[in-house]
């Protein structure tokens, strides 16, 4: 479906709602959203102009039940005093705009984490934002469960195991985390409505503080401390050393939560959920890459996300007390005689430069974003060409020392309990493998505060 076709459909649907002729202007797809599309536009009718946002499933990948839950959650959260974009319309009929959808009002502010954390205009907002996010989550968790019928609920560890088993890439790090999670389950608390993806990127922040909570796609029923743990996961701190979204301390977050909820969550349980959700995101990155690899949703963005699995493995090991250690000196692969210059590495560098210098400067926001993603992917390919043979040799040596031919066999042995997941030799080997993977995928991530 072209942008013009989508604009015509939006005009027709909004006209049905308002009973007036509607003109759609400025329709553009935003960079946000690897699983759902997000479009911004302006609708003009006899009543005036409104800035609106459309979220829809990728056409052909319809999930009508999920979109209906998201719309119901927005309405219930608004009634509970949670700041959310005003819901304008939603539906599951793909004939309306090509896929299940919802339309909300536009809310001014910023969603990009690095800007919120670093730009001077948000300095005042940052001062009390960790506590404000705690208060907001307490309001989310106070939403009556019967206000959103049909909320899914699963055992958190078994759900991770099922996700892991559905993938074709067993990971020793994940198996170690699963066994840790099973041993350290926190005492249960009453179920609540869980947002499921409460983090910078899904929050609109303006100069005064939190303006809106977005993206209720992962909403479910479960342990409310899950949202608190996810907010503290390292990958959403964008390089800041502060543990709560890069904004503040755990005490600030939990004190803010207690102001509204009346009780203060157990910090150890919040940390358990940090480990859980870091594992969940490692598997989620691999699952999204699998959609590209299977040809379901060809996308350079989804392909790139697959290489972020190593970042989450690194973060898991940090949480479990295994920091990265200096690696042995690497020997780059020799430049091949055939096919001569330019070599594969030269060509990769040239295309990455083209993407950064030409595509990213073309003026199209989403194209610039994808150009940056693709250039970063090619940087990793270049490192793999240069360092991959030596890293693979070291990897095979470590596996052999543990008595396994590949990481799938090692992961299976950990799952079956044939290998002690607390064995220092195992943890050292897995730590070294993850560090080597990050050396290719994103070496700068190794230096981020833990």
TrEMBL record:
Gene3D superfamilies: 3.90.1200.10, Phosphorylase Kinase, domain 1 (3.30.200.20). Residues 27-273 form the Aminoglycoside phosphotransferase domain. Residues 364-445 form the DUF6285 domain. InterPro entries: ACAD10_11_N (IPR041726), AGP_Transferase (IPR051678), Aminoglycoside_PTrfase (IPR002575), DUF6285 (IPR046252), Kinase-like_dom_sf (IPR011009). Pfam families: APH (PF01636), DUF6285 (PF19802). This is Aminoglycoside phosphotransferase (APT) family kinase protein.
């Amino acid at each position: 479906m072209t942008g013009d076709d989508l604009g015509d459909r939006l005009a027709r649907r909004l006209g049905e709602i308002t009973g007036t002729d509607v003109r759609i202007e400025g329709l553009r797809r935003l960079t946000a959203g690897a699983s759902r599309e997000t479009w911004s536009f302006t609708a003009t009718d006899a009543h005036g102009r409104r800035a609106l946002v459309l979220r829809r499933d990728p056409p052909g990948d319809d999930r009508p039940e999920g979109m209906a839950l998201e719309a119901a959650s927005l309405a219930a959260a608004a009634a509970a005093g949670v700041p959310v974009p005003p819901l304008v319309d939603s539906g599951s009929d793909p004939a309306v705009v090509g896929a299940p959808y919802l339309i909300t009002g536009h809310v001014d502010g910023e969603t990009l984490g690095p800007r919120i954390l670093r730009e001077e205009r948000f300095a005042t907002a940052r001062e009390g934002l960790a506590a404000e996010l705690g208060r907001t989550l307490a309001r989310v968790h106070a939403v009556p469960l019967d206000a959103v019928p049909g909320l899914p609920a699963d055992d958190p560890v078994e759900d991770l195991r099922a996700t892991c088993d559905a993938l074709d890439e067993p990971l020793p790090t994940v198996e170690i985390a699963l066994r840790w999670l099973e041993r350290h389950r926190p005492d249960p608390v009453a179920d609540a409505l869980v947002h499921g993806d409460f983090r910078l990127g899904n929050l609109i922040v303006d100069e005064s503080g939190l303006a809106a909570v977005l993206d209720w796609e992962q909403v479910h029923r479960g342990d409310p401390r899950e949202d608190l743990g996810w907010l503290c996961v390292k990958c959403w701190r964008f390089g800041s050393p502060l543990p709560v979204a890069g904004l503040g301390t755990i005490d600030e977050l939990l004190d803010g939560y207690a102001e509204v909820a009346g009780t203060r969550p157990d910090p150890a349980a919040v940390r358990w959920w940090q480990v859980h959700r870091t594992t969940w995101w490692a598997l989620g990155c691999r699952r999204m890459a699998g959609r590209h690899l299977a040809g379901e949703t060809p996308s350079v963005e989804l392909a790139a996300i697959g290489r972020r699995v190593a970042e989450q493995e690194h973060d898991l090991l940090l949480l479990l007390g295994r920091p990265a250690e200096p690696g042995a000196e690497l020997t780059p692969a020799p430049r091949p005689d055939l096919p001569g210059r330019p070599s594969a590495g030269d060509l990769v560098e040239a295309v990455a430069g083209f993407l950064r210098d030409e595509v990213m400067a073309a003026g199209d926001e989403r194209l610039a974003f994808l150009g940056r993603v693709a250039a970063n992917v090619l940087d990793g390919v270049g490192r793999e060409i240069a360092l991959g043979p030596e890293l693979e040799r070291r990897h095979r040596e470590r596996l052999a020392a543990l008595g396994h031919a590949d990481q799938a066999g090692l992961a299976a042995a950990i799952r079956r309990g044939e290998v002690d997941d607390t064995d220092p030799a195992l943890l050292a080997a897995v730590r070294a493998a993850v560090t080597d993977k990050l050396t290719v995928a994103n070496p700068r991530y190794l230096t981020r505060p833990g």
